[in-house]
């Protein structure tokens, strides 16, 4: 079974920062279709701090590193995204504790802990047109696979998030600001789902994993 070291996880977080910062305007524009248009800026504000602080964060225990990142999210990511992303990193950190590397099985449990925390924190469930509609199938796919080929896992989870964009596009949002505009949220993609899918597609590109996305939002 494959393992991931703390340095590899830190590198993936650094790549995530670049994705979020580069897409600040695009994610806010998407959010503006049915929400208040702050998603890209909220997320980028926090991830700029993560990008700047990451080199100085101690790389001894994955849990401690993720808890530091969680605190940055809670403090610097604005809107409803701060507590959601902060909770995700906190729960993943609690599931990895003082480990300096994790097995694929432990990584899968970290994703499961993060999404359960986000569900409890935001009160959303599957089908509410939130990032959970990407994270839940990603976790299920990870449970199905044995993790012997991490590149294959990355391509498979990128495909789950990509698929979630189109599968939820016509749904009416039930959580978050987009739920307040009701029907106007139908036929617009959820920015959180697009965010997760964009991060995973960028990971594919960064780590040399072949993946051809389907959703228009990933083919810009
Ligand atoms: Mg918003």
Walk me through the structure.
It is a single chain. The chain is mainly alpha-helical and 220 residues long. The chain has a single domain, classed as DhaL domain (Serine Threonine Protein Phosphatase 5, Tetratricopeptide repeat), CATH 1.25.40.340. Helices cover 64% and strands 3% of the residues. The protein contains nine helices and two strands, in the order βαααααβαααα. It has helices at 6-22, 24-34, 39-53, 62-76, 81-96, 104-122, 132-144, 150-168, 191-206; strands at residues 3-5, 101-103. A two-stranded antiparallel ribbon has the order 1-2. The longest helix has 19 residues, at 104-122. This is Dihydroxyacetone kinase subunit L. Pfam families: Dak2 (PF02734). InterPro entries: DhaK_L_YcgS, DhaL_dom, DhaL_dom_sf, Dihydroxyacetone_Kinase. Residues 7-205 form the DhaL domain.
Give the gist of this structure.
The protein is mostly helical and 220 residues long. The protein has helices at 6-22, 24-34, 39-53, 62-76, 81-96, 104-122, 132-144, 150-168, 191-206, and strands at 3-5, 101-103.
